[in-house]
Write a structure and sequence with these properties.
Elements lengths: L4 E9 L2 E6 L2 E6 L11 E5 L2 E6 L1 H17 L2
């Protein structure tokens, strides 16, 4: 099963971005997207930014993921 997760861009350098994903920092590729900026939220899948989302949508998704993880045994 694959899961795409929202992440906040911390820095950008060439075709890569450092993102914060639930307190973890990860280097991802930005090759599939144009016009990204520090502070943007993106959906990350398989190490690539694949879609830009607004902060409210990102926070709602993260909240649901936290609720699911706490409900699982």
């Amino acid at each position: 099963m694959c899961l795409a997760v929202p992440a906040k861009i911390i820095s950008i350098e060439q075709d890569f971005a450092l993102v914060d994903m639930g307190g973890n920092r990860l280097k991802i590729s930005t090759l599939l997207m144009d016009r990204l900026a520090v502070g943007d939220y993106v959906i990350v899948h398989a190490g690539f930014a694949i879609h830009k989302v607004d902060e409210q949508e990102a926070q709602e998704s993260l909240k649901l993921l936290r609720e699911i993880s706490t409900a699982m045994p």
